[in-house]
Amino acid sequence: MTSTSDPLLRRRAEALAPSYQLFYDEPVHLVRGEGVWVYDADGRRYLDCYNNVPSVGHAHPRVVEALCHQAGLINTHTRYLHEHVVALAERLGAMLPGDLGTCYFVCTGTEANDLAVQIARVVTGNEGVMVTERSYHGNSELVGKLSTDSYPEHERPDWLAVIEPPNTYRGPFRAPEPDLGAHYAALVDDGLDTLAARGHGISSILIDTSWDSNGVLVAPDDYMSLTAEMIRTRGGLVIADEVQAGYCRLGRNFWGHTNYDLLPDIVTLGKPMGAGHPVAAVVTTPAIAAEFATRRNYFNTFGGNPVSAAVALAVLDVIEEEALLANAQAMHGVLGDGLRELATRHPIIGNVQGSGLFWGLDLVADRETREPIAYADAKRIATGLRHRGILAGVTGRYTNVLKLRPPLQFAAEHAELLLTELDALLTGYVLQGGADARALGAEW
Amino acid sequence: MTSTSDPLLRRRAEALAPSYQLFYDEPVHLVRGEGVWVYDADGRRYLDCYNNVPSVGHAHPRVVEALCHQAGLINTHTRYLHEHVVALAERLGAMLPGDLGTCYFVCTGTEANDLAVQIARVVTGNEGVMVTERSYHGNSELVGKLSTDSYPEHERPDWLAVIEPPNTYRGPFRAPEPDLGAHYAALVDDGLDTLAARGHGISSILIDTSWDSNGVLVAPDDYMSLTAEMIRTRGGLVIADEVQAGYCRLGRNFWGHTNYDLLPDIVTLGKPMGAGHPVAAVVTTPAIAAEFATRRNYFNTFGGNPVSAAVALAVLDVIEEEALLANAQAMHGVLGDGLRELATRHPIIGNVQGSGLFWGLDLVADRETREPIAYADAKRIATGLRHRGILAGVTGRYTNVLKLRPPLQFAAEHAELLLTELDALLTGYVLQGGADARALGAEW
Prior knowledge:
By secondary structure, chain A is α/β, with parallel strands linked by helices.
């Protein structure tokens, strides 16, 4: 740890709850950022290959300007009229397929997913919810229950169905077996049967089409449409949790669900929407929103305030003007090719998975058995990258997946630097294992 | 409605969910604010006697400057080290009694109350929660259930105990009867018995010591300590929901619970904390936080980010430097005296209740029977004030209470203007009644 951070670390342990975790045993003390770069208190520069929240880059001047301009005018709530929240809702609606265009604004992805499930339950009259194993959808009482790695398995509520994610490298059905989409979708049907046997109908399935917490997966092409059909046949709604997959993250399309030709009933937005500012949203159809309004009141004091809306509009402006979707698509090729090339030389890389600007390297102790490396080794590798000036993360059910998810401005020169440092680190890296127990829900 | 707002209103109805409500049949379209003043799109100025969220005044330059400065540097999450979040936690801890000093930062009062109840349930092992009739504590699935006016009564969960608030003007026990505190606290014990009969222990009671949604009440002095004792005897925790009552709102003390010599187990903060910026917190004791951490993971991506923390620190700076607690206390006298004087001349004012910069006028059709005026009349009065350039609200179980809750910078000259306009409006006001049904949870 840097010496300047020592006293701060001690004060932090005193004042913040022990639930707070820090990345790295020697935490990084960030004081400044610009584009894909961040700087610590000692002036050291890091290439940010981890943070999707500053989606359009750290401290983007255009976003900061929009924030400051509106904050200098007025910040109120939606019970007075204001242009910004309406303009934002219209713009999101125009970007979404079908008649998804009726918006609720909230402050966090947690609030968005919590409201989405409330809507689904009220509208369907069913209680059941389906998520994948080691899902993460947020931290409220309700959504925390949908985040299956945040609490002990025996505390799972009986209205919760937990299914295997479509992990075609490590799951029960693996490439190149045929009909992988159908096989994984059949697990959805099994989950629905299990719920029914417990007396619960299905209100909704939450799907993060980046399968971030599962290790950054790419599902078989037909998996989502088959899954959606099964859910709808039993009267449930499909919630696309775009907190991770949305905002160009997966390349090719602005939304993750579009990559799978899926038309969701409800879409939830979060992290990248405000490039760090707490703004999030739920978008659904007019019919679903109308039905919900007959049964429930909903108001969110900060949600959709003029400042948050101005920030969210500025983020969309930057994405358009800087052609960041095209960049994510270009990086899909550059990073995908580069990581696969590394895999040809480093047997620790069992699988390269992901797309656009979101990649996972499933790291293995043995390529044949696909035995995951120990959490302690995954941490060592991420820490090694940190000492080489690269911020990355660890994810996946076995916390053995190196997670790369940089801001959308990430360019070829940054990819080259990342690949060079990763190559150097893995060259001669010897697995050490270790019984470093992972805390509940620790992302790494 | 102003002509410039017509098209916006139509667009809004298209793009936002029907759950969204607007104040006034002819909504106010605000575009700018400064101190206690706000301005609409047509340049009309209003004295803000309603909004506590812009606690230190609209668009306070010092708060805006702190926001812009930090947003221009970096906005990250708490998994990297940063000074601001630690400084904010230390400062809040130093302002709170006992060993309340272990902080969690979140983005909204809803998230704060949701987390507080999660903590109480995990730590006590009990499921039951107690709130007052027509409580409002937020909008997540869990906290929405604690907001008893947001959904039909028959849907109340069996772990919820709902008690009569200490309304000494309109409730079952009324001034000047003796032992009012003990009478109301006995209802808490009854509620605990009811929970026990349903098989539920008590995890916590949530107490808003401004009783905002109940009509802005002042409890008997001993009510809170008696209540806390009953809750603790059965193993429950006391959560002071300071989203409304905190931040000098009630005068005399920074926190509402201090007015009642109450030492809570958990304190939740929200609305005024960021003067409009979405920042909120849960503060508890080291022992409770430690126990929670052994059973649950908790992380909030946006919670405690450097920008939100900088804003929250600036709000505390302004409160200190502008001596806003002393101002709230001074206004306690000015507004209280002024409103009571109005009551001597206007029989529609059944009761003047509240303190500091938070007052409710319980408006009655008949002073003897205390029959509340119709919601339609309350709306007409608030609307009349709007046309006189004063923003106010309506609250209370019978939505007959005129709610006055201005920014903390509200001064004697503003009080005089409010009192003058209210006097003029009530002079000759004839009750019209009306069957204008109030929507579920409409505070307006």
